[in-house]
Design a protein that fits this description.
It contains seven helices and eight strands, in the order βαββαβαααβαβαββ. It is of the alpha/beta class and 204 residues long. α3 packs across α4, α3 packs parallel to α5 and α5 packs parallel to α6. The two termini are 25 Å apart.
Amino acid sequence: FSLEVEELAVREGEVLAIIGPNGAGKTTLLNAMAMLNSPAAGSLSIMGRDALAPANRLFLRRAMSVVFSQPYLTNDTVFDNVALPLRLRGLRDGLAAEEALELFRITHLRDRNAKTLSQGESHRAALARAFVTRPRLLLLDEPFAALDERVKEEITRDLRRVVKASGAAVVLVTQDQEGALTLCDTLGVLIGGRLLQTGAPQDV
């Protein structure tokens, strides 16, 4: 898929939303930022480091979290799912996992099997897992997909509260213009692989 993005930047504490129709290249752009795909040309800098340099990849990947449109939860308790990124890093910080559960108001679900959660609960668990490592960059792919309006509003409100408290830079890609406007500080429009405009939501 060909992308034409001349320049795009997101600052600490900023929420950047990229909207566009299905097939516009939003997920391709997000995958490039997540270093899952390498661009054929151009540059990618994260936290002032060259993200295309192999020597920087492990450090930068540990500084970011990615949440996909369908939460990938393991057949374990909610607590074990949230704590998984810590365990993969060789850490045993149960307090951080408990705090992440509390941030997204799912402490009461900690001992439930993640496979029994509702769609909204699964999204909350995935977001708690993303924040458990206190990422500097959070990437969200269609975070409002398949959620009814009431649940979407609640999760969006909680997510904005957590993001602003954390100071993380956030990039979300979505077709949901209303959800993007509720959450973002900066809005971009991607159509046919081209970034047509970025700016304050009211200007775009």
